[in-house]
Design a protein that fits this description.
single chain; mainly beta; Immunoglobulin-like; 26-stranded parallel sheet; five-stranded mixed sheet; 40 strands; elongated
Length: about 600
Amino acid sequence: MLGFVACNNDDPSTPTAPTVSLSTSTAQDVPGANVTVKASVTAPGGGKSLLVTGGSTQTIDLAGATTVDKDVVIAIPASAVVGSTIVVVFSVSDNSNQNSAPVTFTITVGNPVITLQGNISASQTLDATKAYLLVGQVFVKNGAVLTVPAGTIIKGDKASKAALIVEPGGQLVCNGTADKPVVFTSAQPANGRDRGDWAGILLLGSAWVNQDTKPSIEGITPSVLYGSSKAESATPTTNADQSSGTLNYVRIEYAGIELTPNNETNGLTMGGVGNGTTIDHVQSSYGGDDSFEWFGGTVNAKHLVSFSAWDDDLDTDFGFRGNVQFALVVRYPFYADQSGSNAFESDNQGNANATNGCDFTFDGTGVTGGGHEGCTQAVFSNITVLGPKDVNSRTISGSFQNTMHIRRRTNISIFNSYLSGFTTGLRMDDDATIAAYKTGLGVLANNVLTVTTTGLIGSGASATYKEVGTSSGEIGVVYSTNTSSGDATAVKTYWNTVANDNSTFFPAAVATQWSATAGSPVAGAILPPYAGFGVPLSSYWGAGAVGAYPTNPDFSVGSGTLATGADYSNAKFGTFFDKTPTYVGAFGSSDWTDSWTEFQPGVKAY
């Protein structure tokens, strides 16, 4: 007889309890972001599940694995409070229903906005997926490059009057595209933004300025000097090819502040910037002063948009000698500066006195002796100005002044441009400036000028609109001057010189003023000539409210008299200019503002 006895040692042994470890115990990210952490599981008895609790609950099947790594994605709620923490607990159960010790993972909810402030002294590249806020005066220092990729949005803080100042030797490189422009805008919420919410971009370099010593850029404290001046024995070619970076497909919105009279920042201020800099496809909207202002330098630019500026659209000073081709100006009828708002304002300096390299002599009939190479002598071509007054009956701010205000020995040239919508056409302030144009130092040629004048000769229905100003600085006439005589005949004579090939249009009499509807508001009123040019009346702001300009306007000119007639034969056209367009103004059959511009930024959700 045999007997068998079972020993307890023959029972299956209980497996070791499972464990879980994490690749890191902490993380930080912003509301709405996902955080990923690796969980490493060891389960000798076969893993059953990985349980994740905290924030949201996840149960991950381990399918009996004895060792396994799992990448676990944890979503931070969009409503999470900045600065709070989220504690996530990991634990494992095995097929023997044993549980691991819990392991915690702590997520700190970070601020979704990255603050830029103070000095940027080392090169830095931003991330288009992040949000940025400029606080106070932010300086890109000599030797540093701030690179901004396509699609990046940078907001300016209102309370601190934020400004981005690129000092000489620093660079701002904005690599926007038509589909993903770089946007600098107000930090105020939609429907709460206004001009002057922040101070704008100040791009500075070391190229020519016609001053005795290096000037300091307006609106910035402590002062920042720029350019190369007489004190450095500079000439107009000094550092001409210097680069302050690249602005390609960029929007600048609600920027520019008038701190004190004649002490302002603009949408884009350029001081002593060289032509190694690229400026192409840049829109300045709802600026608190000028849209674009150049203080000396040689920088070139193409495809600029000045939209609803407060003061001037294109302002040149201190011997600026760059080139600009293709620019659009659109003005809102009730936004204008008390100093007097113009489409073009061109100076040599703050008065008509001789300056470094711009000391020619006016002998009463023309220019004799001295130099002119240091004068402001930029060349503009293919500009379209759609001013605030589309028809004579349109009410506009009384602070609007001139389509072109040319003064103080400036020698700028304007070619192949459509200039319209202001109550005064061309104003040349002083005898020296007029003489400079008579002798060809500056050239205004092959342009179409329309003026909705307000000055009258006579009264009643038989009154005629005044063409030539007869008092100093007269507004509301086609031609104006600020010479002691006040007689603008010389200005008219220059503009209408046959060789200049300019065309001028203005209503001849009150009874036949321009109206949106023929015969209204006075009998005999006629439609303005815009349709014949190929420019629809709807391109002007007209009677629309401040935020009512079309979302996607079409500025193309496929037919009409502006579609042909461009002339690039003047010696002032250098290699920078595209000489193939046949059209006068900024547009031919295509509209280069498509995709990248924004004409209703006030309601844009950034």
